[in-house]
């Protein structure tokens, strides 16, 4: 969900696997980095995005990962789980951006949204009820003592509001405009803290193993 299969300049249709056990993916507007894996590779490896890992038939068991070359010299990454073995060719020519360099430091954020579990579920289930804007499903997130989401459309120019009563903000008052899809995704992934450096820099959701960043 964090890849761009149409990208030409960079290999944004790929997921990057790293020797340190991290993976990363970006479509140029959002980026996800997650740590805590063991991929068995001694250099960064790019594999094409795949829906395989979303298959409901996959058992809830540990997955083994292997990295090798076939008899034609093509590098592959293999994933084995239960009775399944899945091989993916690696991308040898693609360029992948330095995603670490775009993550703003959470130590210098103007404000932080602290999302409660109840509000996260409410946001995911009801965000579609707000009016749709003209581009990027935009809405306004206003942290001004309360946590308020606002959206309008050409047919409903007066903004509709959604108040997250169980959530709070830490730091200064701030107002940002964001794609609602990215905010909903952060909530659905269970992030409880979203750092906002300022009204123009990327939003940063973080926990102990994951960093999710998106442009506002």
Structural account:
By secondary structure, the protein is mainly β. The protein contains two helices and 16 strands. A hairpin with a 3-residue loop joins strand 9 and strand 10. The radius of gyration is 20 Å and the shape is elongated. The model has no long low-confidence stretch (mean pLDDT 91).
SSE diagram, text form:
Elements: E1 14-17, E2 23-26, E3 30-34, E4 45-48, E5 64-69, E6 75-81, E7 84-89, E8 111-114, H1 117-126, E9 138-143, E10 147-151, E11 160-163, E12 168-171, E13 174-179, H2 180-188, E14 193-196, E15 203-206, E16 210-214
Antiparallel strand pairs: 1-2, 1-4, 2-3, 3-16, 5-6, 6-7, 8-12, 8-14, 9-10, 9-13, 10-11, 14-15, 15-16
Helix pairs in contact: 1-2
Please state the overall shape, judged from the principal axes of the Cα atoms. Answer: elongated
Strand percentage:
35-45%
The share of residues in helices is under 10%
The beta-strand count equals: 16
| Run of helices and strands | EEEEEEEEHEEEEEHEEE
Q: How big is the Rg?
A: 20 Å
Q: What is the distance, rounded to the nearest whole angstrom, between the alpha carbons of the first and last residues?
A: 18 Å
Note poorly predicted spans.
Answer: none
Characterize the main sheet: 9 strands, antiparallel
In DSSP terms (H or I, runs of 4 or more residues), the helix count works out at: 2
Overall mean confidence score, pLDDT: 91
Pairing-aware structural class of the strands and helices? Answer: mainly beta
Main β-sheet, spatial strand arrangement: 4-1-2-3-16-15-14-8-12
